[in-house]
Specification:
heterodimer; A: 113 residues; 7-stranded mixed sheet; B: mainly beta; 49% strand
Chain lengths: 113, 114
Amino acid sequence: DAGVTQSPTHLIKTRGQQVTLRCSPKSGHDTVSWYQQALGQGPQFIFQYYEEEERQRGNFPDRFSGHQFPNYSSELNVNALLLGDSALYLCASSWDSPKGIQYFGAGTRLSVL
Amino acid sequence: GNSVTQMEGPVTLSEEAFLTINCTYTATGYPSLFWYVQYPGEGLQLLLKATKADDKGSNKGFEATYRKETTSFHLEKGSVQVSDSAVYFCALSGVKAAGNKLTFGGGTRVLVKP
């Protein structure tokens, strides 16, 4: 059983560019959440997708957007990249339940130069 | 809002020493509590969880007890190994209206020396 998979593993972009990160959830999971983890800090919740809709959103600007596809996979898009967007971006999947445990992928390391 | 506070690291120990990482939380209602571990260059792995007061989560020799009266979920291991060197994150979820999104503490780096 494949776990949560993310691509690419690493990415280097320059300021002002746009980036798309991808996530495939664990088999059987229907909910995908995205987190940003800055170096030396805990992950911060960006948003959560369920039934192809953004259900919850953390304190992130609308430069951060996402999408969920009918097969439950998801994309995170970031526009107008800033140096401060450099971080590890983690995708987590779960069942739709307030008590649903989230399982994480290995992350995409984004460096903005 | 919801928050998690955990002791800052790094925590440096010798092999076979006792490990404690303190974690306290602020939340309304009855959250679920988690410890996740992150090994170098990797994502987060669920280490253990507890979903109600007085529950004890345990895994791989690690334990943590959900203490509602002190709003705490301290992580303990009786005898650490070099392979336990990692960053440990305390987190909560499941508070009403917040769904299962996770709120994390800042992480505690643990280094176990042989």
